[in-house]
């Protein structure tokens, strides 16, 4: 059983110690660019000039090769779809690369050199995740395929053995489909009842209503931390308080918060928390569930198979302790290590610094977008007390969001999303079929926002004059 | 400016289409700046260029070989020519939207789930029925709440309406690549265009199957045996041949014979634009027979070439808009589509 030794911010990865020559590996990429590159280091070295304050977006951009390309009509790419997935810095790509080139081997089973190294790196990644969200032990981190799978894990493993008919689960209508559907499936099996919190006039979930809905019948509260469409932030501390007062558990969907701000599970007091690697500069194919030790210890397995067992007989088996109990089969080893590298990268910048930059950028995005005539932004208005995430879902009067997104992409190289953003109930509540969404990350700049708004104005112009 | 489309390439990785010698690597356009020469004067030279598929492109439809330009039905060839004559991508979109604007809207009763195209982020509805007069050719109607998808639906309706079930099933959607709209052909549940096309084929097939079931005669052979479709039979319906050409031969267009509308267009453009050069060409016969034209007096499609000082300082889109606005009355009264080449005198070397 591994124990934590304080908060780990940046650990020297084995790549640096063992293979100092593996930094400049670019042969895996298909696209060849001949842009002037200042540094080819694979570690998260930010070449911030000592004197002038450069914005975080500018100083980190060169770590993300994918951003430096032209699309469609030769427009430079302006990537504003980060709520869907984030880009990966070279450090992360190199880490995954290096894993496969140097020490790929199955974990936990082997005795030989490569396997030992792979296991160490994989478990090191687990410790990094634990430290990143301030879990008390790394065994409270279960690696899954993504946040969706993590929620399903809780639904099947915890839900099936803890919910009785008529027990209630409280959610908001703004939840992502992944935080709604597993509970619908569960309620079919257990006859539990789903209760939904709607929005206030400010277009944020009605916390008063939530507080009222939470009763002795409530066994679980499922809420997002940051909404992927409204950009609002929920007061998790208070919600946890209300839930624990009635003996209910709280599961927080932190997919849009962990990548963008400091998330401290001790501080929040949540029972379960889920996030995906690919939204936080890590590879796809891996995510994690945080669960309090005592909860995980009492939960039956989710998927059965190798790795999660202790002893296997023909008529029965015994199961491993958490987290292994919930990690059946060979995991996404390289990807988990990539997630660890992503955490290193983010930690070196500092989550508070990222958050502060994004609050500023969020305001800039909101204010710029607001000036465009006919634009209707969803979610709360930012103020001193109300902080929005750096994303805006919006509609333009008389225009379909798909037309906007298509034209922005084809003519201006601006990548935004159009659709329901996996939040159909929310769209239905707001009375719309679809919306467009621009979402930023710390490597976006104010210039990106300017390009977007300029392109949007041109787009609106084009379609309006056509009519 | 984007490339002249004299070479076409069915690769959905590479945008805009590149000469096929670069087919092995998906490369960004900026990598080969030497290819970027504006060939504005070559706008009408696109003829029958065979499409070379890339062997490395996994997104190509593998079930059938992509059709060459010549193999396309005439209606699609016309659409392709129209789009290829417009270089500027923005103007292409305008052209597409224009198609959509002229699409007859669908009666709300037909906007049902059964008629909805799956996979579009916007809503698209399709309807198919057999033509009343011959019970063999299929008529399509479509609508959408988004303009671009409406334009795409309109293209398909224009291209497929009036064809037999067999013809519809034989057509490949590859032609869309030739339009230069960067429309992907990757089969995915979210490819709205492909889904539209496939739904149209499916509905045509279902019409056929329903008709089969309804037939009680003993011959057992229902399928139209003719392979080559002549537009002649359809031409009889609804086109007043007194003012338009009834010749379905699509060899050299004869621009010197103009009907009333053609004359009106010429007068308006002469008066308003004082052109150095003006060419008004009636190409309606090439569209003769399809549902959108039926009932009009011909004179539905024109190629225009205008060289005028009025275009100075105006973007391509603004030039086109100017012409559209001058011809608005015609557009409201049966003029279906314009293919426009609008130049300033200096641009053509005067």
Q: What is the percent of helical residues of chain B?
A: 25-40%
Which structural class do the helices and strands of chain A define?
A: alpha/beta
| Quaternary structure type | heterodimer
Strand content of chain A is 5-15%
N- to C-terminal separation of chain B? 23 Å
Number-wise, the strands of chain B total: 8
Specify the biggest β-sheet of chain B: 3 strands, antiparallel
Low-confidence stretches of chain A: 1-44
Radius of gyration of chain A: 23 Å
Largest sheet data of chain A: 7 strands, mixed
Inertia-based shape of chain A: globular
- End-to-end Cα distance of chain A: 67 Å
Main β-sheet, spatial strand arrangement of chain B: 3-4-5
Structural category of chain B: alpha/beta
Description:
Chain A is of the alpha/beta class and 467 residues long. Helix content of chain A is 37%, strand content 15%. Chain A is built from 15 helices and 17 strands. In chain A, the strands form five sheets. In chain A, strands 4-10-9-8-7-5-6 form a seven-stranded mixed beta sheet, sandwiched between helices. In chain A, strands 13-14-17-16 form a four-stranded antiparallel beta sheet, with helices on one face. In chain A, α3 runs antiparallel to α11, α12 runs parallel beside α15 and α13 crosses α15. The longest helix of chain A has 21 residues. In chain B, the strands form three sheets. A three-stranded antiparallel beta sheet of chain B has the order 3-4-5. A three-stranded mixed beta sheet of chain B has the order 6-7-8. The longest helix of chain B is centred in the middle third of the chain and has 23 residues. Chain B is elongated. The interface between A and B is medium-sized, with 26 and 30 residues.
Keywords summarizing the entry:
heterodimer; A: about 475 residues; alpha/beta; seven-stranded mixed sheet; 15 helices; 17 strands; B: about 350 residues; three-stranded antiparallel sheet; 10 helices; elongated
């Amino acid at each position: 059983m591994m124990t934590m030794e304080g908060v780990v911010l940046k650990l020297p990865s084995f790549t640096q110690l063992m293979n100092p020559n593996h930094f400049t590996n670019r042969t895996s990429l298909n696209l060849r660019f001949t842009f002037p590159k200042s540094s080819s280091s694979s570690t998260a070295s930010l070449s911030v000039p000592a004197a002038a304050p450069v914005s975080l977006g500018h100083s980190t951009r060169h770590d993300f090769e994918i951003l430096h390309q032209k699309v469609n009509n030769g427009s430079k790419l302006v990537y504003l779809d980060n709520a869907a997935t984030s880009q990966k810095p070279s450090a992360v790509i190199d880490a995954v690369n290096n894993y496969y080139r140097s020490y790929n081997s199955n974990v936990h089973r082997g005795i030989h050199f490569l396997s030992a190294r792979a296991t160490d790196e994989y478990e090191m990644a687990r410790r990094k995740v634990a430290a990143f969200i301030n879990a008390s032990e790394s065994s409270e981190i279960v690696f899954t395929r993504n946040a969706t799978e993590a929620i399903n894990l809780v639904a099947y493993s915890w839900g099936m053995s803890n919910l009785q008919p008529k027990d209630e689960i409280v959610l908001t209508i703004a939840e992502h489909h992944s935080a709604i559907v597993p509970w619908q499936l569960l309620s079919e099996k257990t006859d539990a009842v789903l209760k939904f919190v709607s929005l206030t006039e400010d277009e944020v979930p009605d916390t008063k209503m939530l507080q009222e809905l939470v009763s002795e019948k409530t066994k679980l509260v499922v809420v997002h931390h940051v909404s992927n469409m409204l950009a609002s932030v929920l007061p998790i501390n208070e919600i946890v308080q209300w839930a624990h007062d009635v003996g209910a558990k709280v599961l927080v969907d932190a997919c849009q918060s962990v990548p963008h701000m400091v998330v401290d599970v001790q501080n929040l007091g949540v029972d379960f928390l889920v996030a995906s690697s690919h939204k936080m500069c890590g590879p796809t194919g891996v995510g994690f569930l945080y669960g309090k030790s005592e909860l995980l210890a009492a939960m039956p397995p989710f998927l059965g198979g190798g790795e999660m067992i202790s002893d296997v007989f023909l008529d029965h088996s015994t199961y491993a302790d958490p987290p292994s109990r919930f990690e059946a089969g060979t995991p996404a080893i390289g990807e988990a290590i990539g997630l660890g590298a992503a955490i290193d990268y983010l930690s070196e910048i500092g989550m508070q610094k990222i958050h502060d930059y994004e609050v500023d950028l969020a305001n800039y995005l909101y204010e710029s977008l607001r000036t465009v005539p006919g634009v209707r932004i969803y979610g709360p208005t930012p103020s001193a007390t109300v902080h929005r995430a750096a994303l805006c879902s919006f509609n333009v009067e008389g225009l379909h969001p798909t037309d906007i997104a298509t034209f922005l992409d084809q003519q201006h190289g601006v990548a935004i999303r159009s659709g329901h953003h996996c939040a159909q109930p929310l769209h239905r509540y707001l009375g719309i079929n679809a919306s467009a969404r621009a979402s930023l990350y710390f490597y976006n700049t104010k210039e990106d926002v300017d390009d977007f708004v300029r392109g949007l104005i041109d787009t609106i112009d084009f379609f309006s004059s056509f009519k | 400016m984007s490339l002249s489309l004299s070479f076409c390439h069915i690769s959905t990785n590479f945008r805009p289409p590149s000469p096929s010698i670069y087919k092995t690597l998906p490369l960004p356009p900026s990598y080969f700046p030497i290819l970027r020469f504006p060939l504005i004067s070559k706008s009408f030279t696109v003829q029958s260029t065979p499409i070379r598929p890339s062997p490395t492109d996994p997104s190509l439809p593998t079930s059938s070989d992509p059709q060459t330009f010549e193999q396309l039905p005439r209606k699609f060839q016309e659409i392709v020519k129209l789009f290829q004559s417009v270089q500027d991508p923005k103007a292409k979109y305008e052209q597409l939207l224009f198609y959509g604007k002229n699409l007859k809207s669908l009666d709300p009763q037909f906007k049902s789930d059964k008629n909805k195209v799956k996979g579009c982020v916007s809503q698209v509805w399709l309807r198919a029925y057999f033509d009343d007069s011959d019970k063999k050719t299929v008529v399509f109607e479509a609508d959408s709440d988004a303009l671009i998808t409406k334009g795409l639906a309109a293209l398909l309706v224009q291209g497929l309406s009036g064809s037999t079930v067999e013809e519809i099933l034989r057509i490949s959607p590859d032609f869309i690549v030739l339009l230069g709209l960067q429309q992907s052909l990757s089969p995915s549940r979210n490819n709205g265009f492909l889904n539209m096309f496939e739904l149209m084929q499916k509905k045509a097939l279902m019409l056929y199957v329903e008709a089969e079931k309804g037939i009680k005669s003993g011959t057992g052979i229902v399928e139209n045996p003719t392979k080559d479709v002549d537009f002649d039979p359809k031409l009889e319906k609804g086109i007043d041949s007194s003012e338009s050409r009834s010749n379905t031969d699509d060899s050299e267009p004869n621009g010197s014979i103009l009907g009333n509308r053609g004359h009106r267009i010429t007068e308006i453009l002469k008066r308003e634009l004082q052109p150095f050069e003006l060419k008004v060409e009636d190409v309606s016969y090439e569209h003769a027979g399809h549902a959108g034209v039926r009932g009009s007096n011909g004179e539905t499609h024109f190629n225009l070439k205008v060289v005028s000082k009025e275009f100075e300082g105006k973007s391509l889109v603004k030039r086109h808009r100017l012409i559209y606005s001058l011809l608005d009355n015609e557009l409201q009264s049966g003029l279906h589509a314009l293919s426009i080449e609008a130049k300033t005198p200096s641009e053509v070397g005067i």
